[in-house]
Amino acid sequence: MIRNVLLGSAFALCMISCTDTPNDDPTQQPEVTFRTALDSLNEAIINDPNNIELYLERCNEWLVAGKHDEAFADLERVLRIDTANAEAYNQRGNLHFLRSEFSESIEDFKACLFYDENHTDCLLKKAELDMLLRNYDQAILNINKALRVDQNIPQAYFLKGMLYKETGDSAAAASSYATAIDLDPEFYDAYIQAALLYAGAGDDLALEYYNSALDVKPNSTEALYDKGMYLQETGFRDPIRYQQALQCYREIEAVDSTNAAAAFNQGYIYLEYLSHYDSASVKFGDAIRKYPMYFQAFYNRGLCFESMDMNDLALNDYNKALAIRPDYTPAAKAKGRLVP
Predict the structure, then answer these.
(1) Helix, strand, or coil (residue 19)
(2) What is the pLDDT of the chain when averaged over all its residues?
(3) N or C: which end of the chain has fewer CB within 10 A?
(4) Nearest to 336 by CA among 310, 315, 306, 313
(5) pLDDT value at residue 176
(6) 205-216 and 188-200 helices cross at what angle (nearest 10)?
C-alpha cells in the first residue's frame, strides 16, 4: 500500500468553501422589512432632523443591510450634531475595523473612551484590536476594565480566553471560555473555541463542546467539519470514529452540496484508514468535480488507482495534479514510481 496523503490542505479549503445555512446569518433580513424600517426612520428624521438616536438607529439598519457607506454617513451626521457622542465614535470605529482600517479604528475607539471611559463595548472592541496587533498587556487591561463596569459580559470572558490561548495559557483559556458559556449558554463561538482547545490536547471533552455548538447551530458546517476532523484524527482509539467522521462530512454535504473539502476528507478516510480504494476514488472524484483545481484530490485519487493496479489512471491523475501545481513534490515522486 502506498500512502503519502496531505490532509491539512483540506481544512484550508473548507474555510473558503464551507458556509452555514442562511438562517444562521443575521444579515439576511427580508428586503421588505428593511425598507419598511428605513421608510419609517426617514420620515421621523425629516420631522426631527437633529435627533441623534434616529440617526444611530438608521445606522444600525444600514449595517444589518451591509450598506457601510450609508452607515458612515449617518455617523458623520451624528458627530456634526454632537462632537462628543461616544456611541458614534464607537460605531465608526467598528466600521473601520470591519474594513481593516486599523489606524482609523484606534483613533475612533480612543475618542469614544475619552468621552465615556466606561463604554464596555468600545473597551472590548479596542481589546480585540489590541490582540490583533499583539498588544496583549493593553488588551487585558481593557477587558478587565470592562469587567469592572459589568462582571457579567460573556464577550469579555471569551476575549480573555482568546488572549490566553494566543499567549499559551491553555488552562486559563479553558476557564474563560467556560465562564462565557455559563453566562450565555447560546455562545456558539465559545463552544467552538473551547472544543478546538481540547481537541488540540487530544481530550475527548472536545466532542462535548462540538455537540453543544451543534445544539446552538445544528447546520454549522464549521462545527461539523471540526468534529469530523477530531474523530478521524482519534480513530485509533476506536475504529467506529471513522464512521462517525464520515457521517459528519455527509451532513456537511447535505447542507452545502458544493463543499469539496467534505468530499475530500471522506476520500482520505477511505484511503488512509479503511483501505477502501474504490470508495476513496469516488469521493476524491466528487471533490474534483466541486473544485477542479484541487490538486491534492487528483494526487490522492491517483494513489487509489495505483493501489488498485490501475497505473494508467494513476499516472493521468498525477499529471493533472502537476499541471495545476508543477512544484507539488508528492505527485512528482508518485509519477517517478510509474515512469522510471
Answers:
(1) coil
(2) 92
(3) C
(4) 315
(5) 99
(6) 160
